[in-house]
Amino acid sequence: MENNQLDKFSALWLSHSSISDFLKCPRLYYLHNKYKDIKTNHKISLITPALTLGKVVHLVIESLSEVPSEERFSRSPLIKFENEWKKVSGQIGGFDNPDQEYEFKQRGSKMIQTIIDDPKFLSKKAIKLKSSIGLPNYWFSQENNVILCGKIDWIEYLPKSDTVHIVDFKTGKFEEGSESLQLPIYYLLAKNLQSRSITKASYWYLDNSKGIVEKKLPDEKDAIGKIEKIADRISLAVKLGHFKCPTNGCRHCYPYERLIKGEGKWVGVSEYNQDTYTLKTPKPEV
After folding, report:
1. Candidates 1.10.287, 1.20.120, 3.90.320, 3.30.530; correct CATH number of 5-9+46-240?
2. What are the two backbone dihedrals, phi and then psi, of residue 266, each rounded to the nearest 5 degrees?
3. I want to staple 22 with a disulfide (CB 3.0 to 4.6 A). Which of 29, 121, 192, 208 is the partner?
4. Residue range 168-194, pLDDT digits in tens
């Protein structure tokens, strides 16, 4: 198969997010990544306060990488944070009430203040992966028509060794599990989309006391093997159109089932052309 743009449109695109969806529940994968509303022909997405918080903090950090290193903190990132938060305030950000929004906004503000107080490598040279179509991506398997894609939060350039350091920022309170495929996927993306060796990989936990946690670099062969296995499973499910929830309505797919039943509130179209909804938590049965 030739590596061209037409083939990319017919390929199976896999990311850490879509793979995580499938591993949680095949039905969730279908509803979040394949299903399209018959009226708009858009995919659907559920927005929650936690997702909004993560989105805004990541947007602020990403904006820093677009500024020359010596100028990054000449203007407080909190200004960018405030401006971005205004765009998601209220129902559009999934907030049920002002008190809930205030709580999440304060958490976000504190995270940004953390990187202002000690920017570490954020004030140094960074490398960005570029792409001509969608997220940074490469042909994981031309034979099986699979593309691996994703956006790495930060790639620090290490001038002494002429190598790079992959960093993922965490805005939740919990640590990434040891079985997570996130770093293996980011490692493969960085290896295939830029020329320098990768010598470090870290998580930066912004919402707890862990701070920066350096992780062992993934083994390339092992990473490829693990992703090949899940890619084969997803490819087969797509081919057969078989995306069954193992429990007939788990906590992962149930919110999306409610969306397609019309229980969500439409709040707009995302940057990825998805119809975005909020969903009130149903009242517990008495």
Report:
1. 3.90.320
2. -70, 130
3. 29
4. 999 998 889 888 999 999 999 999 999
